[in-house]
Protein backbone atom coordinates (compact mmCIF):
# COMPACT_ATOMS: atom_id res chain seq x y z
CA UNK A 1 0.00 0.00 0.00
CA UNK A 2 1.29 3.49 -0.88
CA UNK A 3 2.05 5.91 1.97
CA UNK A 4 -0.77 8.35 2.81
CA UNK A 5 -0.82 11.35 0.50
CA UNK A 6 1.28 9.70 -2.20
CA UNK A 7 0.10 8.65 -5.62
CA UNK A 8 -0.56 4.97 -5.86
CA UNK A 9 -3.28 2.42 -5.79
CA UNK A 10 -4.84 1.24 -2.56
CA UNK A 11 -6.48 -2.13 -2.19
CA UNK A 12 -9.46 -1.06 -0.08
CA UNK A 13 -10.23 -4.67 0.82
CA UNK A 14 -7.01 -4.83 2.82
CA UNK A 15 -7.44 -1.49 4.60
CA UNK A 16 -9.49 -1.37 7.75
CA UNK A 17 -9.90 1.92 9.58
CA UNK A 18 -12.39 1.69 12.41
CA UNK A 19 -15.12 4.25 12.85
CA UNK A 20 -15.13 6.36 16.05
CA UNK A 21 -17.17 3.73 17.92
CA UNK A 22 -14.74 1.05 16.73
CA UNK A 23 -17.42 -0.88 14.86
CA UNK A 24 -16.38 -0.25 11.27
CA UNK A 25 -18.60 -1.02 8.30
CA UNK A 26 -19.15 -4.58 7.25
CA UNK A 27 -20.72 -6.54 4.43
CA UNK A 28 -24.06 -6.68 6.23
CA UNK A 29 -24.12 -2.88 6.55
CA UNK A 30 -23.37 -2.46 2.85
CA UNK A 31 -26.00 -5.05 1.92
CA UNK A 32 -28.54 -3.20 4.06
CA UNK A 33 -27.67 0.16 2.46
CA UNK A 34 -27.86 -1.42 -0.99
CA UNK A 35 -31.34 -2.79 -0.23
CA UNK A 36 -32.49 0.62 1.03
CA UNK A 37 -31.15 2.27 -2.14
CA UNK A 38 -32.55 -0.55 -4.27
CA UNK A 39 -29.13 -1.31 -5.74
CA UNK A 40 -28.13 -4.71 -7.06
CA UNK A 41 -24.74 -5.52 -5.55
CA UNK A 42 -22.70 -8.69 -6.08
CA UNK A 43 -20.91 -10.51 -3.26
CA UNK A 44 -17.55 -9.27 -4.55
CA UNK A 45 -18.86 -5.70 -4.62
CA UNK A 46 -20.08 -6.03 -1.03
CA UNK A 47 -16.51 -6.76 0.09
CA UNK A 48 -15.03 -3.93 -1.99
CA UNK A 49 -17.66 -1.37 -0.94
CA UNK A 50 -17.39 -2.35 2.72
CA UNK A 51 -13.65 -1.68 2.62
CA UNK A 52 -14.07 1.59 0.74
CA UNK A 53 -16.81 2.88 3.04
CA UNK A 54 -14.78 1.86 6.08
CA UNK A 55 -11.84 3.92 4.81
CA UNK A 56 -14.10 6.90 4.06
CA UNK A 57 -15.69 6.80 7.52
CA UNK A 58 -12.27 6.50 9.11
CA UNK A 59 -11.07 9.54 7.17
CA UNK A 60 -14.10 11.55 8.25
CA UNK A 61 -13.46 10.52 11.85
CA UNK A 62 -9.87 11.77 11.57
CA UNK A 63 -11.08 15.12 10.24
CA UNK A 64 -13.57 15.33 13.12
CA UNK A 65 -10.69 14.81 15.57
CA UNK A 66 -8.81 17.76 14.07
CA UNK A 67 -11.80 20.11 14.03
CA UNK A 68 -11.66 21.96 17.33
CA UNK A 69 -13.71 24.68 18.99
CA UNK A 70 -10.80 27.14 18.87
CA UNK A 71 -10.61 26.97 15.06
CA UNK A 72 -13.14 29.31 13.41
CA UNK A 73 -15.13 27.89 10.50
CA UNK A 74 -14.11 29.15 7.08
CA UNK A 75 -15.78 29.22 3.72
CA UNK A 76 -12.71 30.22 1.70
CA UNK A 77 -9.00 29.65 2.13
CA UNK A 78 -8.39 33.32 1.33
CA UNK A 79 -10.42 36.01 3.10
CA UNK A 80 -12.62 37.72 0.54
CA UNK A 81 -14.94 40.70 0.54
CA UNK A 82 -17.60 41.16 -2.08
CA UNK A 83 -17.09 44.22 -4.21
CA UNK A 84 -20.32 45.61 -5.54
CA UNK A 85 -20.66 48.21 -8.23
CA UNK A 86 -23.08 51.06 -7.79
CA UNK A 87 -26.45 50.70 -9.50
CA UNK A 88 -26.48 53.07 -12.41
CA UNK A 89 -29.01 53.49 -15.16
CA UNK A 90 -27.18 52.78 -18.39
CA UNK A 91 -28.37 52.32 -21.94
CA UNK A 92 -29.02 48.74 -22.95
CA UNK A 93 -30.25 47.04 -26.09
CA UNK A 94 -33.17 48.70 -27.82
CA UNK A 95 -36.52 46.95 -27.25
CA UNK A 96 -36.95 46.18 -30.96
CA UNK A 97 -33.53 44.49 -31.12
CA UNK A 98 -34.30 42.34 -28.09
CA UNK A 99 -37.77 41.35 -29.28
CA UNK A 100 -36.44 40.58 -32.76
CA UNK A 101 -34.70 37.50 -31.32
CA UNK A 102 -37.80 36.20 -29.54
CA UNK A 103 -39.70 33.24 -31.02
CA UNK A 104 -43.04 34.94 -30.23
CA UNK A 105 -43.98 38.53 -29.28
CA UNK A 106 -47.28 39.98 -28.07
CA UNK A 107 -47.90 43.62 -27.02
CA UNK A 108 -44.15 44.42 -27.03
CA UNK A 109 -43.46 41.51 -24.64
CA UNK A 110 -42.07 38.01 -24.94
CA UNK A 111 -44.85 35.49 -25.46
CA UNK A 112 -44.13 32.21 -23.74
CA UNK A 113 -46.16 29.00 -23.69
CA UNK A 114 -48.45 28.46 -20.70
CA UNK A 115 -46.99 25.92 -18.30
CA UNK A 116 -49.64 26.05 -15.58
CA UNK A 117 -53.37 25.55 -15.82
CA UNK A 118 -55.92 28.31 -15.39
CA UNK A 119 -55.86 30.04 -12.01
CA UNK A 120 -58.82 29.26 -9.79
TrEMBL record:
Q: Which SUPFAM superfamilies match?
A: Glu-tRNAGln amidotransferase C subunit (SSF141000)
What's the subunit arrangement here? Heterotrimer of A, B and C subunits.
Q: Which UniProt keywords apply?
A: ATP-binding, Ligase, Nucleotide-binding, Protein biosynthesis, Transferase
- One Pfam match, given by its short name, reads GatC
InterPro entries according to UniProt: Asp/Glu-ADT_sf_sub_c, GatC
Q: What Gene3D superfamilies would the database entry show?
A: Glu-tRNAGln amidotransferase C subunit, N-terminal domain
Q: Where is this region: Disordered?
A: 1-27
One Gene Ontology molecular-function label: asparaginyl-tRNA synthase (glutamine-hydrolyzing) activity
Any one Gene Ontology biological process term?
Answer: glutaminyl-tRNAGln biosynthesis via transamidation
E.C. number, please?
Answer: 6.3.5.-
- PANTHER family in the record: GLUTAMYL-TRNA(GLN) AMIDOTRANSFERASE SUBUNIT C, MITOCHONDRIAL
What is the documented function of this protein? Answer: Allows the formation of correctly charged Asn-tRNA(Asn) or Gln-tRNA(Gln) through the transamidation of misacylated Asp-tRNA(Asn) or Glu-tRNA(Gln) in organisms which lack either or both of asparaginyl-tRNA or glutaminyl-tRNA synthetases. The reaction takes place in the presence of glutamine and ATP through an activated phospho-Asp-tRNA(Asn) or phospho-Glu-tRNA(Gln).
Q: What is this protein called?
A: Aspartyl/glutamyl-tRNA(Asn/Gln) amidotransferase subunit C
Reactions that this protein is recorded to catalyse: L-glutamyl-tRNA(Gln) + L-glutamine + ATP + H2O = L-glutaminyl-tRNA(Gln) + L-glutamate + ADP + phosphate + H(+); L-aspartyl-tRNA(Asn) + L-glutamine + ATP + H2O = L-asparaginyl-tRNA(Asn) + L-glutamate + ADP + phosphate + 2 H(+)
Describe the family membership recorded for this protein in Swiss-Prot or TrEMBL.
Belongs to the GatC family.
Amino acid sequence: MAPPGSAGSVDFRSVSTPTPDGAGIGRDDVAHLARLARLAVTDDELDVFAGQLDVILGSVARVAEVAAADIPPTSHAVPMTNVYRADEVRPSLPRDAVLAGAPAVEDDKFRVPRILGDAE
